[in-house]
Amino acid sequence: MSEHHGPATGIQRWLYATNHKDIGTMYLWFSFAMFFLGGSFAMVIRAELFQPGLQLVEPAFFNQMTTMHGLIMVFGAVMPAFVGLANWMVPLMIGAPDMALPRMNNLSFWILPFAFAMLVSTFFMEGGAPAFGWTFYAPLSTTYAPPSVTFFIFAVHLLGASSIMGSINIIVTVMNLRAPGMTYMKLPLFVWTWVITAFLLIAAMPVLAGAVTMMLTDIHFGTSFFSAAGGGDPVMFQHIFWFFGHPEVYIIILPAFGVVSEIIPTFSRKRLFGYSSMVYATASIAFLSFIVWAHHMYTTGMPLAGELFFMYATMLIAVPTGVKVFNWIATMFGGALTFETPMLFCIAFVFLFTLGGLTGVMLSLAPVDFAYHDSYFVVAHFHYTMVAGAIFSMSAAVYYWLPKWSGKMYNETMGKVHFWVAFIGFNLTFFPQHFVGLAGMPRRIPDYALQFADFNMMSSIGAFIYGFAQLLFLYNVVQTIRKGKVNTDEKTWEGAEGLEWTVPSPAPFHTFSTPPTVK
Amino acid sequence: MTNIVDTKKKRTTVILLVMVAAMFGFGFALVPLYDLLCELTGINGKVVLVPYDAKNVEVDEQRIVSVQFLALNNSGMPWKFKPNHNSIKVNPGASTSTSFFAHNPTQNLMVGQAVPSISPSGAAKYFHKIECFCFNQQELKGGAQADLGLQFFVDKDLPKNIHTITLTYTLFDVTQKVASSN
Amino acid sequence: MYLSTNQLKKRRFPAAALALSTLSTGAIADPSSRWQTNLSPGVTELGQEVFDLHMLVVWICVAISVAVFGVLLYVLINHTKASGRTPATFHESTVVELMWTIVPALILIAIAVPATNTLIKLYDSSDSDVDILVTGYQWKWKYEYLSKDGGETFSFLSILSTPADQFEIGATAEKGENYLLEVDEPLVIPVNKKVRFLVTSADVLHAWWVPALSVKRDAVPGYINDAWTIPQKEGIYRGQCAELCGKDHGFMPIVVKVVSEKEYEEWVASKLSSSKADLTEKSLDELVASGEALYNKNCSGCHAVNGTGIPGVFPALKGSSIALGDVNAHIDVVVNGAPGTAMSAYGAQIKPDELAAIITYERNAWGNNTGDAVQASDIVNFNQ
Q1: All structural domains of chain B with their residue ranges
Q2: Does domain C5-122 have CATH number 1.10.287.90?
Q3: Residue A472 has pLDDT above 50, yes or no
Q4: Chain segment A223-267, per-residue pLDDT in tens
């Protein structure tokens, strides 16, 4: 890059964007929008479940809500948010001028609005949107699916292509564009977790593409991959889906681990404890994620030997995950802590994610899982890991790096208000779901027996509070960008380390055109 | 300098693209792999759909195993379909024949496919079919009926704790599928 | 390592544990309670064992939480900048890191042993006294009692009996005690006998789940799964479908009545004698009257109570060419189903006298005024 020029103006700046910061910004705003869309579906779900009886929506539409809530949150909100974060931060953290493949970067972003427009348009089709759950088990998603399923399949293909391109870009960037002296074992942990995540994506997304392709040919071209009548097996769908699906949940959580591993040291004013064991733990979690998929399928009639294998392998994941939690606490131990908004979100992350991890150990035990499976206990578990994991860490990341992105400082009081409302709302929503689950409430039902009424009402109130907290989040971000206190310090946070804190704030359009030297 | 980086970038990209293609292929390879795994372990009591070559099979006259037969229709399949014997007691190793009754009550020619399943699933790999109507699709004209034959034996290595094997056939209507593939 | 139930019961201290543990171990396990917060051991030995294992793990999790969050809290309170500390500089320790890798691994092994034993028991469905084939349909269950000695078998459908005016949008009727957990005809099984459930499905995936009997198994079309229970206490136990199966997934409950052996034998005898269809001729009014109830029970899930169906998904019957056209074509689609659609072949599920009433109702309700009275014998003859 010998030519130095600023961004193009107007719409062209965004349509033809190849700058990693612009693309990162677009990813972040897009995922924010999707977060509100998926969140509004969650509000519909919780409003319907506020009390027994059907009040607002028909069961068929309720199923569309749960399905689309899951799909949009996983593929539209969380994944693009972390890709956006990677786009912004990876080049800054490794001292690269930009991402390695800027045009592919542009393509991988611009696929997303089209894919989601197609997915959301299914609401207006005859028969409605997909209503078979975000796990789209056959044959409900094949023989018995609404006609819109074909559009759903195409949308999933596009999303997959987008994530794969994003991953390739990140790996190529990290492998080839590191500043001189930036060896692998000096990479910030966020970069490490993203490299490992990118490999997970490259291994898992094509399998998902294969699964939906098989659905497509089963529906339209007379094959029988998932139909017993032609020698197929519906349970095989679940094996293929979870071969993708389990790595997918680590795809969502590993970048979150990376974010937390950046922020906790900053506000502890102390180096990350056990850096290399963090890297190894991340890698072993990634590896294990490929051999535990069938723990989602304990009740499908697997042979005993299979159940035992998957049970033992799943229990093993607790070990590297535990190592991470212990390392974060050891990082804080002996530090000089301050509690700015990003740190509060990270501490809440450590606390809540550990709770989700512990219920994960419970769920790993096959004989007891027969009692937990497909109950609200599972819903509580994965929201404790996914929301407290991905959303809390993403909120932390936004408050942490927003001063660098915008050159403006957020209002600390408002940030803390956002945190506490979110923390209370989140726990009020999902903690009672452990109870109704253990008491026997199945998931994905639009109406329930009277004995579950009180906890469900609590849960719904919590959800509205949590939803309100996100409006505060949006308000804070917009207010910071528009009216925030100007922040021109290169290093916003006293304890911050890393190359991203050596460039001016706001980060200029081009950074590290001449690579820095890392000692 | 820039050129070296460009070449390296290209190389990494190509390697990663090859990995993507390989994983897409792997997704499809899971299908035969799964079938293989089923054969080895009896997942879902899924049974091999090819005749078993029974040569020099020893009969264990000391042991008696009860075999239950069940027939059921997938929704949308109007045939009458039931076992002619609800259960049979057999010696492991001894070849036994039985049959199922099928009747097509509609006016039209229909094609059915019976899908076998065995429980407990641990017994699946010890249940050998020498001849079975489930190996082929069954065609019945409107109003026609037929007895569908099954010849099998239970392996003498059947685990000792299994005393009853349940063989279920689910009958699917594949008329449209057959018509559209022709 | 492995605590007995009694030990666990003695060690319950609700309030403190509730705050710390991931679950309330205060254990209000009475299934009828609105504030039930824990698994119930149910009425089987296996259920008790699963419950004990669950409690063991809960307590281990509580202990880990106390330790980990205790340290976290200590750090948050004491190691702050506000307290004027200079941050320490250590950032690794091989010994400590090895410790917190090995200790959790050992705890996991200790849990894996009892879990393996319980799982092996859960998988042993051999030597049952009663065998029942459970088939899931969108959105009801069919129970077929299998005969051990080649004798007669019988079967029946079990469908939600909570009236729609208790749950539909705008419903005003007061909700009953067993709202959404009641069926027209429960499954009946004998106490203290080993009952084996062969679980399958005729359409999409379902899962048969009765917590008190400690049974949950997926119903997979084309494949059979088996599960078993030995209920030790007479009573009525309720459960639900646990696998998303479409629109009315939340409306296909399971009710199991556990009775004495004598009562069970009598019930079986009466079922065997009453499972024959009533083939006597009925008047149009009689057919429409009984047909309305049967239609609302069996058909309204898709075609709606007012016969309008769901546009784009399930066809309307009101004014439809089938319901107003040739009687035989109408009988054909009901009895033999419509290939490639969600319309089942009901000839295999519902008795001829009931089918006759349903078809008659469909041809004479919602302004469909054909005046046709379809008799049970028409259905029987149609199938010959």
Answers
A1: 1-41, 46-181
A2: yes
A3: yes
A4: 888 988 887 889 999 999 999 999 999 999 999 999 999 999 999
Separation in Å, CA of B76 to nearest CA in chain C = 4
Which ranges constitute the DSSP H helices of chain C? 5-10, 14-20, 45-78, 94-122, 261-274, 284-298, 300-303, 321-324, 327-336, 352-364, 376-382
Asked if C124 and C188 touch (Cβ cutoff 8 Å), the reply is no
Domain C284-382 is found in CATH 1.10.760.10? yes
pLDDT tens readout for residues C170-182: 888 888 889 999 9
Q: What is the average per-residue pLDDT within A389-409?
A: 95
Rounded CA separation B95/B51 (Å): 13
Q: Which chains touch C (3 or more CB pairs under 8 A)?
A: A, B
pLDDT band at A203 (very low <50, low <70, confident <90, very high): very high
pLDDT in tens, A101-114: 999 999 999 999 99
Query: What are the strands, taking DSSP E only, across A397-448?
Result: 408-409
Q: What is the mean pLDDT of residues B163-173?
A: 88
The answer, yes or no, to whether residue A282 has pLDDT greater than 60, is yes
Q: What is the pLDDT of residue B54?
A: 61
- Better pLDDT: A304 or A96: A96
What is the C-alpha radius of gyration for chain B, rounded to an integer number of angstroms?
23
Which residues, at least 6 apart from C11, have a Cβ–Cβ distance to it below 8 Å? C3, C59
User: Which of C98, C119, C300 to mutate to probe the A interface, most A CBs <10 Å?
Assistant: C119
| CATH topology classification for A19-221 | Cytochrome C Oxidase; Chain A (1.20.210)
**CB-CB contact of A328 with C110 (8 Å):** no
Q: What secondary structure letter does DSSP report for C80?
A: B
pLDDT at A9: 78
Return the percentage of chain A with pLDDT > 70, whole number: 99
Which chain B residues have a beta carbon less than 8 Å from that of A229? 74, 113, 115, 172-174, 177
pLDDT digits (tens, 9 = 90+) for A121-174: 999 998 899 999 999 998 999 988 999 999 999 999 999 999 999 999 999 999
For residue A470, what is the enclosing H or E element?
helix A453-483
In angstroms, rounded to a whole number, what is the distance separating the alpha carbons of residues C186 and C132?
13
pTM for the structure as a whole: 0.89
pLDDT band with cut points at 50, 70 and 90 for residue B55: low
Nearest-by-CA chain B residue for C221: B74
Q: CA-CA-CA-CA torsion for C180, C184, C186, C187, nearest 10 degrees? A: -120
What average pLDDT does the segment C76-103 reach?
90
Domain C130-274 in CATH 3.40.50.2300 = no
Residue in C220, C263, B23, B109 with CA at minimum distance from that of residue A228: C220
- By DSSP bridging, strand B96-103 and strand B145-154 are antiparallel
Is C198 in contact with B70 (Cβ distance < 8 A)?
yes
Contact assignment for A234 to C222 by CB distance below 8 Å: yes
Q: Domain ranges in chain A? A: 19-221
Q: Is there a contact between A341 and A419 (Cβ–Cβ < 8 Å)?
A: yes
**pLDDT value at C109 more than 70:** yes
The crossing angle, in degrees rounded to 10, of helices A102-121 and A59-71 is 170
- For B46-181, the fitting CATH number among 2.60.370.10, 2.60.40.1570, 2.40.50.140, 3.40.470.10 is 2.60.370.10
Confirm whether A248 is a catalytic residue: yes
* Burial class (CB within 10 angstroms; exposed 0-12, middle 13-18, buried 19+) of C284: middle
How close C332 gets to chain B, by Cα (Å)? 8
Where are chain C's structural domains?
Answer: 5-122, 130-274, 284-382
In A400-449, which ranges are E strands? 408-409
Q: What three-state secondary structure class fits A69? A: helix
**Helix axes A234-268 and A341-364, enclosed angle (nearest 10):** 140
